[in-house]
């Protein structure tokens, strides 16, 4: 009697497994057509590298830096670094330098 129960259980289990396998196969076929393949390190690595969590747009290569003078966020390639401070333009860098105490004003 116990063996019969085991057989029934096995039957159901194999059927469940078969269904699951078939579903996974169908999903893999649907997903493989766009061209994901098995290699995840080819295209995904370059896209993910620049995203460091803070930026909402992961496609930007250079991180955004905040202008000390006006607070505008600019790409680091376009920003100016004067005396360790970052600015969006040279005008703000000059204005910040001309001010006697920029930190107390804020
Ligand atoms: Zn600025």
From TrEMBL:
Biased composition (Gly residues): 34-44
Region (Disordered): 28-61
InterPro entries reported in the protein's UniProt record: PP0621-like (IPR049708)
Stored NCBIfam families: PP0621_fam
UniProt protein name: Pyrimidine deaminase
Organism: Caballeronia choica
